Amino acid sequence: MKRWITVLFCCLWLLTVAVCRTLSGGILIEQVPQFMLVSNNIESGSKFIGLDSYEDTLYGLLALKTAEDKPQTYRIVEISEDGQALTATPVFALVLEEESTVSDFACVSDGFYVSVITTAGNSAGIYFVETDYLSEDNLPGSEEEPDFFSLHVSQTLTAEEGRQINWAGYEDGAFVSWKDDGTGVVYYIEDVTGDAAGEQLLMDAGQEASNQQFYLITWLVLLFAGFGLIILAVNGLYRRSYTVYMVAITEALLFLLILACAVLTIWMRRTTVLEEDEQFSQYYLELFADNIDDDEFQNMEADSFYSEDDYYTLWDKLADFVADERTEGNFSDLCLVRSEDQMVLVSASGKNGLSLENIYGGEEFLEVELQMHEGFCLTAVLSEEEEGWFADTFTRRYLLVSAVLFLLSSAVCLAFLLSQGREISGLSRAMLTASGGYEVPSKERARSKDVALMWNSFMEMQKKINQINYARYRIYESCYRFAPKDIEKIFGRDSITEVDGGDFVRLMGTMAFVTSDEPESPDEDSAARMSSFVTLVEKHQEESGGFFVPGNSDLTSLRVLFLEDNHHSVDFGTSFLNEFSSAPELNGMKTGILLHYSEFLYAVAGNDQQCFPFLLSEDKEQMERFAAWFREMGLKLVITDEVRIREKIGVNCRYIGYIFLEKAGKKVELYEALNACAPVERRLKLESEEKFQRAIRLFYQHDFYLARNGFSDVLKINPYDQISKWYLFTCEKYLNQTYSAGDICRLRPEA
Predict the structure, then answer these.
(1) Which pLDDT tens digit goes with each residue over 335-344?
(2) Host H or E run for residue 259
(3) How crowded is residue 316: how many other Cβ atoms within 10 Å of its Cβ?
(4) Rounded CA gap, 726 and 713, in Å?
(5) What 3-state DSSP class applies to 400?
(6) What is the pTM of this model?
(7) Residue 571 and residue 544 in contact, taking contact as beta carbons nearer than 8 Å
(8) Average pLDDT of span 454-476
(9) How many CB atoms lie within 10 A of CB 402?
(10) What's the mean pLDDT when you consider all of the chain?
């Protein structure tokens, strides 16, 4: 339930953020620049600054995204109807003598003209790019992209003294310009209307992500922060904590209150400032209009007006007004306009000879009629660069103060709420600790009498519970000490308390028969010796993952069971015997191990008061007799052939013969693991290994005479090899008999 609530809240938050992002438009997301290409094979961040068509083919001048310390570079691109880049020129730069901007881009049959005007407006230049430069290989991402090249100016235009060039371009085979005296305006109008061909070209997803990187990162941060807050809120609601509810409600109300005050204050101040700016601009514009001299309008309609001093005087006044520090930022241009046709006669920017609609279509204006000069008016073009909400110094400072106030108020409220629930929280934590089975060391100080009384009651309850648990633990520990360890694992139970009388399990495994000689006398030294012996067996049994199986009462025969998936029985025997031989407290004690893989029945007999585990197998008793006999023969670790194959024992392993299991009716071959022998003994047995195996083969062929000689050679190398002595005496026995019935070659303790 908690998971589904979290998923639901996260989906609602994602939907809310997506809707807010869509509705925010120009607030959070940067507006899409005009003339951006749909194609994904043009550099991200590039922008079209000029479009023109020739014979139904659209071409664009692309300004590439470059670093601030690098020169501006360009490409010319051929564009298909669906906005894909078909061909392109190599990257090029314009060689400029003065700081300039591109004003026009025109296509002709054999190439392209790029026109620029200087920032001062005193001159213009035109550059020519041949059509032969266009190629698919020049598109970004091509394997062999041509190098960067530079373009030099082909033709220049210089304005007459006192004139300013507003626009320059290539029209009808000539380099034309629009100047501040109104000449050339026809060419400018025709060129501007041609730019509308690229208004339908937009950015692709990659270009939009690149241009809106900052806003996208901000949006993702807000998104994931919202997810985190939602998860915290759901956790608090799911736990149903009184403190969490109070903190959440208090913080939410405090945040909404401070936010509402901040937004209302900022909005009221911003509205007031905007109204004051508008009123001030209107007032200052009217004041400026009243101060214009009558003489400045005498020759306004004359053809020679733009060459007379009155024009320059009026132009300087308009320019000074726009650049005045009192109006700086409010107006982008100030124009003297003829009322009947909205023709701009004089402007601070020098853009004269056109109507306001043609020059500043869609912009906002402030207009003041000239009272002394009917038919004329002053029109101020309002600045497009309006400061955002967070650009104002007062707004930023007030938001900072509001944030600090919220943090301080939150700290005070949190301290008050947490102090109210601290005593109950401490008691709750203590009860939770006790419910997990841990002991609470001491009670916390409580000023409230009710909470102190609950603490006293809780501590008394815990004391009683600890006493009961301690008694049960001691009883359980005592029972577990005298019960077979890990018996529950053999039966596949979680606890030994789940094992009942009558339970049984059939299993395959390897049984280790560990035998030792009986103590010579029942004294204290014998008890300590047997304790050390059993402790050593138990140590290696736990390391190898085996299980103790109940044996006889004198501990001379111990059994360790290794389940089917355990392949460490030989490692158990080897490590135990190596440590046994070096233990000083076990010096003089004889022991041996026989490993046998078979099927066993493990069961528990008894009732609720008394139970006895036991293990049954067809060949258990016979294997125990062999284990004791092998110990007497001085064999440390004997393994059956099946154990050798299961645990992949291939080296330092000596074949010693076979035995016959009567109940199972099968022969079992036996091997001696020489790694369990002392170093000297292992070396002697390895030296005599070849003679020993040859003698056994002769023994199996009933050539007892040669077999006897072979075992005699073995004893010459290793006089302490007891199994070779047994074979030697057996050969002597059958040499003196004329007839022997049965299998006389198997190992037999009674032989």
Answers:
(1) 888 888 888 8
(2) helix 242-290
(3) 11
(4) 14
(5) helix
(6) 0.44
(7) yes
(8) 76
(9) 17
(10) 78
